[in-house]
Write a structure and sequence with these properties.
The protein is mainly α and about 375 residues long. It is built from 15 helices and two strands. The protein has helices at about 1-25, 30-40, 45-75, 80-105, 120-130, 140-160, 170-185, 195-210, 215-225, 240-265, 275, 280-305, 320-325, 330-340, 345-375, and strands at about 40, 45. Helix 12 runs antiparallel to helix 13 and helix 12 packs across helix 15 (about 345-375).
């Protein structure tokens, strides 16, 4: 977990740099070169398409490995451990969706963007926490990570169910047969990693042909990778899941996710006025992230603890928990990804980027400021709201 958090924190900082570089290039004399680069053909796809559909499948594979490890051998291995993060994640997905629909849902064609503000960006949020150093207890870092992993799981389900236009039965059957083969390898005790990777590539191709977004294949493949925890050696180093997760993690954290940020954060800000910022689509996304996330996450935590469904993270005040709820509004990577699925029109795409960047940036600044300044001296008792 320490290595994971270190990678996510450092990767979050690299992600910020990639997004900032995209904004600089898109608003300078390098704009034509930037957009031309993203349109370059690679394996029959544009570079932008290749990053979003192929490389991001490895990001989703890592997400799936994280989820499996957390549920079998991590901080959500017992129901008592997973209840609070799952409840917080559920509230943190439902309320932003409602906020978005209240602002933009009545406008023609915009209701399908309801899931854009639903997920938290682990790398970005942990990167902000890393800037706070010892001002934030380690329990909150772990809690934020588990909440983000839980709503990543929810986001994957949403992508599979809500953003699949048409289904090819034969391809879907082929994907199911490949999954069966992977699980048979697992049940047969096969601990070599390469057979799973070969089948994972075949699964990705089958899912792509099925009409379901191919990144879902990454999460599906992860469920079949063996993890062999034991009391003597939890998350043993010879476990295929452990080896794959630790092999993928630096490539995803320092390569794929920053590259995704670079490819998707570029917006020409020079023509943006107040009417653009207050249009229903970007405003609904931004308010969903900034207001919906903090309300949904914090209210869910308060209610769950009041009902004795969980306990507050060790050593953390309610004020600090509220600061983490603010950081949950950083929805950069997954929000941009879902936005690209919800709206293919370039004009809508720019509005999505404006809303995601604006809401995520405001959430990051508010969360950092709260935890850096306002949380000081406000270590409230467990029965007092901040």
């Amino acid at each position: 977990m320490r290595q994971f958090l270190d990678n996510e924190a450092s990767g979050g900082i690299v992600l910020m740099f990639g997004a900032a570089l995209a904004l600089v290039m898109a608003n300078s004399a390098l704009a034509d070169a930037y957009f031309g680069l993203l349109g370059t053909k690679l394996f029959g796809w544009t570079l932008h398409h290749f990053i979003n559909d192929a490389l991001m499948s490895l990001f989703f594979l890592l997400v799936g490995l994280d989820i499996k490890r957390e549920f079998l051998d991590g901080h959500m291995a017992r129901w008592s451990d997973r209840a609070l993060p799952l409840i917080a994640a559920a509230g943190g997905m439902a309320v932003p969706a409602l906020v978005y629909l209240a602002v933009a849902g009545s406008h023609p064609g915009l209701a399908r963007g309801w899931a854009i503000p639903a997920a938290t960006d682990i790398a970005f949020a942990i990167g902000v926490l890393a800037l706070l150093g010892r001002r934030v207890p380690g329990s909150l870092r772990i809690f934020l990570t588990t909440v983000a992993i839980a709503d990543d799981l929810g986001a994957v389900v949403i992508i599979a169910l809500a953003y699949t236009a048409a289904i090819s039965g034969p391809a879907l059957l082929g994907a199911a047969m490949i999954m069966v083969a992977m699980f048979l390898l697992n049940r047969g005790g096969v601990m070599l990693l390469w057979p799973y990777l070969v089948l994972a590539v075949a699964l990705w191709a089958a899912v792509l042909l099925s009409g379901v977004h191919p990144t879902v294949a990454g999460v599906l493949a992860a469920t079949a990778i063996p993890l062999r925890p034991s009391p003597a050696a939890p998350d043993a180093e010879d476990s295929p899941l452990h080896r794959l997760e630790h092999g993928l993690s630096p490539w995803v954290a320092f390569g794929i996710v920053p590259l995704f940020g670079f490819a998707n954060a570029g917006i020409d800000l020079r023509a943006i006025g107040l009417d653009t910022l207050t249009a229903p689509l970007p405003l609904g996304i931004a308010l969903g992230l900034l207001l919906g996330k903090q309300i949904g996450v914090f209210a869910s935590i308060r209610i769950a603890i009041a009902l004795k469904l969980g306990v507050r993270p060790s050593g953390a005040s309610w004020s600090q928990v509220y600061g983490v709820a603010l950081l949950c509004g950083i929805g950069f990577t997954m929000s941009l990804f879902i936005g690209g699925l919800a709206f293919v029109d370039p004009l809508h795409g720019n509005a999505v980027r404006i809303g995601v960047l604006g809401g995520s940036l405001l959430s990051a600044l508010a969360g950092y400021a709260w935890l850096r300044f306002a949380a000081r001296g406000r270590n409230l008792p467990s029965d007092s709201p901040p």
